[in-house]
Amino acid sequence: MAAVRVEEVLAAAEEQEAEKRRSVTVEKELELEFDLGNLLALDRNPPPAAGLRGAGPRREALLRALARDNAQLLVARLWELPAERAGGAGGPLVARLPEPAFRLPREKPPPRPRPPTRWEQFARLKGIRRRKRTSLVWDEQAKEWRRRWGYRRAGGDPARAWLAEVPEGADPQEDQFARLRREKRERVARNELNRLRNLARAHRAGTGTAAPAAPLHPTGHQSREELGRVARVARVSTASLGRFQPRLPKEPAEPPSRSGGRKRRFEPLLGNLAAERSRQLELLRDMGSKRPVLDITRAVNKQLRQEEAEAAAAKGKKQSQRGKRGRRQQRAGRSAKKSGARRQQQQRPVGSGTGGGGGRRKKA
């Protein structure tokens, strides 16, 4: 009995040792293709078809074993890369990955390039290059470093200075402080107008399919419709789609949009696979079917719009005919009155008067 027990212990130890060796040693008929930059391993060995038939625990166990073997090969290749300690001798051991060789596809389309502004177009035409300047400059009056632009900038705001220089050739009686404040308001308004122009140009460039709207006139004489359109574009250009933007004193309330102020939502990368499979199968089924997909609601709305348009056209045609008939009757009445008056003048005797010779006589 003791000998049998010893043999069982030795056999169990050998099995454990073989299991350990099998866990780190994987043999494949065809070597895997590795892209260590993307941590990608491509296995071109055909899987056993008999084990993948049907759905059951045998199939799941086979897939788990195949995934474990491939992951083991990928980890073994990672250990062959040059490694170093991150953060000193006591830091974790990290490996330097090579450059990716396989180009992975994007889930979302690449962002469209931003259209250039008017100044960028002018600078490109004239060959003006942008020079990067520091944001801080030395202020001689305050004896400290201050911002070049904005609040508490170097030199201070000229409109708030206690002394203003009268320019040469200017009216000495003119209030220079009021002139500086007026010029500042004009600069702010001009910058805001340029910002709205750039937003409107970017919005027209982003639509693509719609016809481009007429640009704002550079002279500053914009119509009411143009300014309203640009203001609407500037309002919805914020992150909240203009929900918290203050309105102008006489600006009317805009109707709610069809989307309800909601942004586009994308499906997560790792989600419900069954729902994704059903969507893809439905799309393929619609593409493969020869019968077109009929949207009942859209078809009914289109028919109602056509009937309303035909009724409006018929009503307008009747009103136009009624107006023409009325104008003809008015012209006929005026012509009858004129002809009656002419007949009365022709039938009246010449020289007849009231009373005894009360007519007009010609002086001798």
Automatic annotation (TrEMBL):
Residues 315-341 have a biased composition (Basic residues). Residues 206-226, 240-271, 305-364 are annotated as: Disordered. It is found in: Nucleus. GO terms for cellular component: condensed nuclear chromosome; endoplasmic reticulum; nucleolus; nucleoplasm; preribosome, large subunit precursor. It comes from the Eukaryota. Keywords: Nucleus, Ribosome biogenesis. Coiled coil: none annotated. Residues 206-221 have a biased composition (Low complexity). One of its GO terms (biological process) is ribosomal large subunit assembly. GO terms for molecular function: 5S rRNA binding. The keyword Nucleus applies. Belongs to the RRS1 family. Involved in ribosomal large subunit assembly. This is Ribosome biogenesis regulatory protein. The lineage of its organism: Eukaryota, Metazoa, Chordata, Craniata, Vertebrata.
